[in-house]
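Figure 2 data, in text form.
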Amino acid sequence: MTRSVPRLLVITDTTLQTRHGHADLARRAIDGGADGIQLRDKDAPVRELLAVAEATRDVCGRAGVPFFVNDRVDIALAVGADGVHVGENDLPASVARRLLGPGASIGVTAYTPPMARAALEEGGDYVGFGPVYGTQSKANARGATGLDGLTGFAASCSLPILAIGSVRAENIPELLDAGAHGVAVISAVCCAPDVTAAASAFARSLP
């Protein structure tokens, strides 16, 4: 089964900014051209997260845009999300696949060739690679990989790659040249004065 992979995945965040909620961020980003939305909330209590996920799913569903949940396979399953993104400390992609079924899109964080191979073997549909240019969204994050890091990783990865980590619209051409399929973006869209305009700038830069 072939599952589509977004090229502009906007990851919603209410920690770096507090003007907009997750569902509102999703609506504004989709209006700008985002073709995938991922809900990311590390702090919300589970029932609050469930309600937020339902509201964000509904925004995406009305627009026909795939809705992903970051980390929480249980929440993705509960709300009928289109997919989930799992990291090193989350449930393995193989378990997420078993729980969510063959129709779900599963993204996997990977930054070494063995991790890329594992993502493929466990049923992942794409990998998130980074931080390419560094990051403001994670404490104790890994150092920036740079374009050389992305190029080297792409040579060993057979899954589509979404580059992440302080990505800007003007970086799109060099990221695609280095082997990225698309980008995953947090602060450059969510923290922008105009979320829709920021997403539109990214969408226009993707051929």
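Caption note: The mean pLDDT is 95.
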